[in-house]
Amino acid sequence: PADPKQRVMIGAKSLSEIMSVLLPSDGSAFVYSAVRFGHCNDLEARTAELYEEYVEQYERLSVRERIDNEVLWERVKTSPQFQEVAPHVKEEVTLSTTRGYQYTFKAGWQNGHQQLLEPITLDYVDPFEMVDKAVWWSGRLHELASQNEFHLIAIVSDPPANGARQKYDQARTLLEGSERLRSVITQAQIPELAKLIAKDVERTRDGQ
């Protein structure tokens, strides 16, 4: 054969010699282990086991339910603490600008100024989508703040259990730095949210 690699492989006396041609030790990310051998009664079954061990188990995604915006909002509405202040909260509050942009927030109430409440999930398979969502919301709030007086409380999903915590924290920091963002809370802080709404309502009653 004209190809030197083919000549080496044809004349190879062991699998190690063949692998040294296919994957030379050149510092790349692809390396092979020492060649081992043994006896197998059922080659097909053993091959399937190895495929499961080294390939399939890493391809399976978690089957847990993703916490999207609707799930977050449902957890807020069904919270006993929130239900106590729900009569003072108006669902679906729309803000708009003269440039033709508008957005309807999940809920709002008054404390002398328009207060808004919105679920913003950060529960994504791809951690970079968390940051993208925060940047998107920052732009939305900037546009609405140019012609509206309001403050927003954002309810975000809990921190991820996997290795995406760094992107989650980055996304939260971006949200917290957005215009008219009053605070960012998680599901665990819904009782504190209810207390804050109650104080706002009381302040409005007192004319403060």
Helix-strand pattern: HHHHHEEEHEHEH
Helix-residue proportion: 40-55%
- Tell me the Rg in angstroms: 29 Å
Number of helices: 8
Strand content: 15-25%
Low-confidence stretches: none
Strand arrangement across the biggest beta sheet = 1-2-3-4-5
Name the overall outline.
elongated
Mean pLDDT rating: 85
Protein architecture, described:
A five-stranded mixed beta sheet has the order 1-2-3-4-5. The protein has helices at residues 4-10, 15-22, 43-59, 69-77, 80-85, 128-145, 165-176, 190-205, and strands at 90-96, 102-110, 114-120, 150-156, 181-186. Helix 6 runs parallel beside helix 7. The protein is elongated, with a radius of gyration of 29 Å. The chain has 208 residues and is α/β, with parallel strands linked by helices. The mean pLDDT is 85. The longest helix is centred in the middle third of the chain and has 18 residues, at 128-145.
Compact overview of the structure:
It contains eight helices and five strands, in the order αααααβββαβαβα. It is of the alpha/beta class and 208 residues long. The longest helix is centred in the middle third of the chain and has 18 residues.
